[in-house]
Design goal:
The structure holds two protein chains of two kinds. Chain A is mainly α. Chain A has two domains: 34 residues; 55 residues. Helices cover 67% and strands 4% of the residues of chain A. A two-stranded antiparallel sheet of chain A has the order 1-2. In chain A, a hairpin with a 5-residue loop joins strand 1 and strand 2. Helix content of chain B is 73%, strand content 2%. A two-stranded antiparallel sheet of chain B has the order 1-2. In chain B, helix 2 crosses helix 12, helix 9 packs antiparallel against helix 12 and helix 11 packs antiparallel against helix 12. Chain B starts with 13 loop residues before the first helix and ends with a helix. The chains are: A mainly alpha, B mainly alpha. Chains A and B meet through helix 1 and helix 2 of A and helix 1, helix 2 and helix 12 of B.
Chain lengths: 93, 287
């Protein structure tokens, strides 16, 4: 069975590849330096590393959509903003 | 209680992961692929980048169906949750009649969604349906095939009829778990009926009500079959909620790119709400 029906593009392939790599990297980091136990962050939530990754990815999706809807500049800036957001989430949430 | 921690248990999840991959992750990836491309059939695709997303986000049609979707979900939650709690409070707590009530309450939940739609379609017809004919006979002009207000009234009434039982059953289960001693203590203190509800029953039902609201929110946010069978999104676009609009775009107009972009935005909204409720429930349990 080929995968042509899934209509892959290298851009979307890269997108999912990066997410898969993030998951692998998180697993390796947990094995190497266990410390993923929940901690209490600024939002008053107990989050593990995995939770923080999820919050970062979901938030990034919204940042990109909001950027597309409201800001006329290129979408790369949304990516930069998302990276900053993700860093803040991992540091403080 | 000390829990045993064994990470090898994660391997037990593999079969589920495999099934979820086939029925959720692979289709979702395909939708993501579609959302950045255009096609004229024949499996030929052209890369379009984020064009469909910009188009959908700026489209008035999308805004309107989203608004209708929120209106529908908000309205049925506002009606079903208090109504469900109210019915659960009046149900007998034990004995023969409590079983009768439970079975009666469970009946609407057992009916397939398209049957519910078809039932209400006939029930509300202005010329032969009991509801439609009865309302017109009373002098209330009612025709859900022509008037948007009538169509909305019928769709909401249908959902309330179909799903309030779920809230009732969950609230009833919550009420049953309250120890009799709480009521005795309240009686000794001379607490009013309202105080018993406010300080004993409601706090004890908090968890099940959160779950009830979550389930009703998700279900109503993704509702398709019942309004589709009942009104088909009409009259005009009056009851075209998100899912109906999505199917129109994807299958009616074969706008795969636009429909895929819509699906992803729709999916992100449900995902956010799911996460919020999940967090509320799990963080609430820890307290």
């Amino acid at each position: 069975m080929g995968l042509s029906w899934m209509a892959w593009t290298w851009q979307t392939g890269l997108f999912f590849g990066v997410i898969a790599l993030l998951l692998v990297a998180m697993t390796l980091r947990e094995l190497q330096r266990p410390g993923g136990a929940p901690r209490h962050g600024v939002l008053g939530l107990d989050t593990t590393r995995g939770d923080r990754l999820f919050i970062s990815l979901l938030g990034s999706a919204y940042i990109h959509l909001a950027w597309l809807a409201l800001v006329p500049w290129p979408l790369w800036w949304a990516l930069v903003l998302s990276a900053i957001y993700a860093a803040l989430v991992f540091r403080y949430v | 209680m000390q829990k045993t921690l064994n990470n090898k248990a994660w391997f037990m999840v593999l079969p589920v992961l495999f099934i979820v991959a086939l029925n959720a992750i692979v289709p979702l990836m395909t939708v993501v692929n579609y959302s950045v491309q255009d096609t004229f059939g024949n499996n030929l695709f052209f890369f379009e980048g984020t064009r469909w997303f910009s188009e959908v986000l700026a489209s008035e049609r999308f805004h309107d169906s989203l608004l209708r979707q929120f209106f529908f979900t908000f309205t049925i939650l506002v009606i079903e949750v208090p109504l469900g709690v109210g019915i659960a409070l009046t149900m007998p707590r034990r004995g023969f009649w409590s079983s009768v009530c439970l079975v009666l309450m469970a009946l609407p939940l057992l009916i397939p969604w398209n049957v519910v739609g078809a039932m209400w379609n006939i029930y509300a017809l202005p010329d032969i349906g009991l509801l439609g004919y009865g309302l017109n006979w009373l002098g209330i002009p009612f025709d859900y095939t022509q008037q948007p207000v009538s169509a909305w009234f019928t769709v909401i009434l249908m959902d309330v009829w179909h799903w309030t039982s779920l809230v009732v059953l969950l609230a009833y289960a919550g009420l049953r778990s309250i120890d009799d001693n709480y009521y005795r203590a309240a009686q000794i203190d001379g607490a009013s009926r309202w105080a018993v509800f406010r300080y004993i029953q409601l706090p004890k039902m908090k968890h099940v009500l959160t779950i009830a609201i979550l389930l009703r929110f998700m279900d109503s946010f993704m509702i398709y079959t019942e309004p589709f069978v009942l009104t088909g999104g009409g009259p005009g676009n009056a009851t075209t909620v998100l899912s109906i609009d999505l199917v129109k775009a994807a299958l009616g107009e074969f706008n795969l790119g636009v429909a895929a972009a819509m699906s992803i935005i729709y999916f992100l909204m449900t995902l956010l709400v799911c996460w919020l409720f999940y967090t509320l429930i799990t963080q609430g349990e820890k307290k």
